[in-house]
Amino acid sequence: MQNAILRVTLKTPVAIGRNGLSLSVLDALVFDRLVLMHGGDEDAAMKDMALVLDRIDDHVWACGGGYYNRGLHGSLPWRRLVFRKMTADRHLQSMAEDLCGITPERWPYEVSNLFGQQVLAMQFTQRFVNTPEILFRMRGNPEAIARLLQVRDYLGPGHAIGFGQIESVEWDIVENVDDAWLLLDPDGRLTRPIPAALQPLLDASKTALVSEPVRCNPPYWRGNTEPGFRPVPIGL
């Protein structure tokens, strides 16, 4: 296992996730590709995670979230009004109502010229960062992870409308760094959620921490939370 910085070169701006706080964590991207390769088998994907990523004291995978050269606070994210075709998937509509209490009648939409014709389209604002590359710190097998990231040719949400298209993935080996290095950007800012147990790794006088219940391992969209810390939102 080697310490490395992965450099993901982008063709298009990268969108920020629904929480609007930070860029993707590397372990979420690796897990996503492995699940795809295993035909949806999450247990098999999780076993293979250990082949390409180390762990930090059995708490989290040894990697950070994405950042760009000027640090997470280098510039404010842009906002763009985008449209998606209204879905006819009744199962999806039912899930939206059951899980979120949002009925189809409440979805924001309007008639838009999509796909060369006037169709009902959902309207929303997408936040994105206009940067030529996203960087990740990691300890594991950088060559294998670089190949995995290119199984899907995009990074982050909004790929259906052109965000986060990957051009290439390269890496630089780094020597003599500790576990705290994996979790931070060059400005000493946290790039990923961490459990409270990992707080002693960080210099409290230099690292801005936001305390709240967090999920610290993929899949991040479900599962139990635990006391911990999340990154300061991009742009602050």
From TrEMBL:
Entry superkingdom: Bacteria
Protein name (database record): Uncharacterized protein
Origin species: Acidihalobacter prosperus
Upper classification of the organism: Bacteria, Pseudomonadati, Pseudomonadota, Gammaproteobacteria, Chromatiales
